[in-house]
Amino acid sequence: MARPIKETPTLYGEDARRFEYAVEHPRLATKEEITNIEASHLRMTSIANFAF
Fold first, then answer.
1. In which region does residue 42 sit, left (phi positive, over 0), alpha (psi from -120 to 50) or beta (all else)?
2. 46: burial class by Cβ within 10 Å (0-12, 13-18, 19+)?
3. What is residue 33's predicted lDDT score, i.e. its pLDDT?
4. Would the CA dihedral through 49, 47, 42, 22 be positive or negative?
5. Which 8-state DSSP code applies to residue 23?
6. Using an 8 Å Cβ cutoff, are 11 and 19 in contact?
C-alpha cells in the first residue's frame, strides 16, 4: 500500500529569494549538455523494444 505524501515545506528568507530567482531565471543548457542528452536519447531509443 502506498504511503501518504508529506506536505511540501514552506521556504522563508534567503532560501525563498534564491528559489524565486532560480524559477524566474532558469539556467540554459550548454551545447555540451544538449549533445550529451541527445546521445543518451538515441542510445535509449535504439535499445528500447516495446511490444504493444
1. alpha
2. exposed
3. 97
4. positive
5. H
6. yes
User: Phi, psi at residue 42, to the nearest 5°?
Assistant: -65, -40
Residue the block writes with cell 539556467: 27
Q: What is the pTM of this model?
A: 0.53
Helices marked H in 1-52 — which ranges? 13-24, 31-47
pLDDT at 21: 97
Q: How far apart are CA 17 and CA 11, in angstroms?
A: 9
Sole residue written with cell 505524501: 5
Residue 41 C-alpha cell reads as 536519447
Q: Cell numbers of 52, please?
A: 504493444
CB 8 within 8 A of CB 15: no
* pLDDT band, residue 50 (cuts 50/70/90): confident
